[in-house]
Amino acid sequence: MSDAALEEFALRMGDNCLILGQRVSAWCGYAPALEEDIAMANVALDLIGQAKLWLALAGALEGKGRDADALAFLRDARAFRNCLLVEQPNGDYGQTLMRQFLFDAWHVPMLEGLAASREERVAAIAAKTAKEAAYHRDRSADLVIRLGDGGEESRRRMQTALDLLWPFAGELLAADETEARLAGEGVIPDLADIAKKWTAFVEPALEEATLVPPKDAPVRKGGKQGLHTEALGYVLAEMQWLQRAYPGATW
Amino acid sequence: MAEAPTKPSVGDIWRWLEDAPDPEIPVLSVVDLGIVRAVEWRGETLIVTVTPTYSACPATSVIALDVEAMLRRRGIADVKIETRLVPPWTTDWISEKGREKLRAYGIAPPEGAVCAGAAKAAGARIACPRCGSTNTEEISRFGSTPCKASWRCKDCLEPFDYFKSF
Ligand SMILES: [Zn+2]
Question: What is the pTM of this model?
Fold first, then answer.
């Protein structure tokens, strides 16, 4: 198995968690209800903890002495490998929840598949984090259903969020060369299979939420290769400024 | 420098660890919580293997520091804390004694099969740690720390923390 492909994959997993965690953490102190505020802070914390595990693995595979902090705080946008979905702005609360829902629906089967990886370091992280992701998915699906099948205003907002974010989901579900190779080696699951599981979860939930995915929406992708939307730069500016301005600063 | 006459036994060390509190729920020891996976001597080095509860549990690094400091106070100079992810921690590993301590402290201990949404599946009956009533409801799936959810008792009307089954 090639370490470079595995390193690339660990970066993708870690960057997805890191960027989504950073996005979600921005709700801390601003969420519409106290319970939601606490939920957001907890989800963000889980994701950042998961990012640390994946990025530590990526750094070890790279072998240049970069740890999770160095990878999180000292890389430029082009070096980030997260999918475009997670870097999309928080928008209103509906948008934040829809983004989480579309991500969680992928994250859970992905981690469950990775827990059976032939690469034991990958399997260990996946087995550790799969339960956390499942807990997130229970909540995001529950809220998407309640708000979609809620009042007129909440339904309108959830449908707007779905229309906006749906095109970004496809990137998670289609393998590129690196992922196809790793799947062939039994290191990661086949993404076609993950896509089936994603659809089997998302479709009935959206139906219950009375929400309709846009038809023939183009798939927006590029994040896995480091080609990001403008949004990522703003996330990184906020997340990295302290370590950039005061290199090596600690608590 | 004082020289330790003999190395403490692994059994002694386990007993000491039973007095090492979890920083977030100090009535629980790290042994009650089930996060100490192994204690062994590797030559002159004492290896304590711990497993994190949640990936991001902020207490994990504090626990490692606390355990190391406690063992040094006990005279063990060469201590190494190792972290192990596999098998992943589950609330099934909280000891019976630990569950009793949680209840007495006002936190409902984890109930039911460990799976995502176990508490949500209304089947799980969570008893109020104050009055014992199972006429309770979930307020939020999340709580003041990653390991807790927020619940309310519909009989005595008090809110309480539930150590969620995980
Ligand atoms: Zn009560």
Answer: 0.92
